[in-house]
Design brief:
By secondary structure, the chain is of the alpha/beta class. It contains 11 helices and 5 strands; from the N terminus they run H-E-E-H-E-H-E-E-H-H-H-H-H-H-H-H. Helices cover 43% and strands 8% of the residues.
């Protein structure tokens, strides 16, 4: 699979895979929960502190899927530039900013010098890593909308629940939200227009934000367990949330989203640049090519 081929370019330190065609010199920074390897001469300012802040911020919501995150460590490889990131064998699309490999407990990103963006990308990819590891325990792959929606939700919450995705929901036109049967059938194509891809991510985020609240954390976990076990989404929504059908769930979700006091009212914020995360995330992965 292309996702695993991504790691073939790595690593001078430590050697996880076969020798890469281009040697990269990595410098190491160790924190209680991370082994960070950076390509630049200097680590991004405050990297160690920022990584532990991110970990602490998402642990409350994500640790139920990956209990090992409390004591385990994650490897993060930070390329010095987009060009360096793109030069590897995995050849991500030009808008890709990060890749996650749950079986190796590794994420690969690059630093463009914008601290807020680096924080968002790290949070997004860590959410993928922890959530995908939960599904991998059952030799399963999470649905695309659920996987990406949760990652964007965690990314948004990295800004104290006042992130750009929440702002983008305000004033969103109902027509931009596709019928759920269409939306949940799969992710956008690699060649899809940027606006269409952004809208797809925004809808996935809105669905997870509706399902995953402080009061419904356990229900969201149970929904994920059911889906991981192969229960159809419509049946899982009935079993866990008591929606009698997918259309009943969609009606409740749209009412919440577009009600006068709801999330999609008042002045809208700009839709974040969703295609910063590679659509190759959508494909199942394994330890075989």
């Amino acid at each position: 699979m292309r996702r695993l081929c991504a790691l073939a370019l790595l690593f001078a330190v430590p050697p996880l895979f076969a020798a890469a065609p281009r040697k990269t010199v990595w410098r190491e920074l160790v924190t209680p929960h991370f082994h960070a390897y950076y390509e630049a001469n200097w680590a991004p300012a405050g990297l160690g502190v920022e990584l532990e802040k991110i970990h602490g911020r998402i642990r409350m919501d994500i640790s139920m899927f990956a209990p090992w995150m409390s004591t385990g460590t994650v490897k993060i490889y930070i390329h010095a530039s987009q060009a360096s990131f793109m030069a590897g064998e995995f050849a991500p699309p030009p808008w890709s900013r990060g890749l996650a490999y749950s079986d190796k407990k590794t994420i690969v990103i690059y630093d463009d010098g914008v601290r807020d963006r680096l924080r968002s990308v790290i949070t997004h990819e860590l959410a993928h890593l922890f959530f995908e590891s939960f599904f991998k325990e059952a030799d399963a792959v999470p649905p695309v909308w659920l996987n990406e929606g949760l990652a964007v939700y965690m990314e948004d919450r990295a800004d104290s629940d006042k992130g750009p995705w929440s702002a983008a929901l305000k004033g969103t036109a109902p027509a931009r939200m596709k019928p759920l049967k269409t939306h949940c059938a799969g992710g956008p194509k690699e060649d899809a227009p940027a606006q269409q891809v952004s809208d797809w991510y925004l809808e996935s985020f809105a669905l997870v934000k509706f399902l995953f609240t402080p009061a419904t954390r356990l229900q969201f976990k149970n929904l994920s367990v059911a889906v991981r076990n192969g229960v159809p989404l419509e049946q899982a929504l009935w079993n866990v949330y008591r929606y009698r059908s997918l259309s009943a769930f969609e009606e409740a979700w749209r009412k919440w989203l577009f009600a006068p006091e709801g999330n999609a009212q008042s002045a809208p914020g700009p839709v974040p640049s969703a295609p910063q995360f590679s659509p190759i995330q959508f494909k199942p992965f394994s330890t075989k090519n």
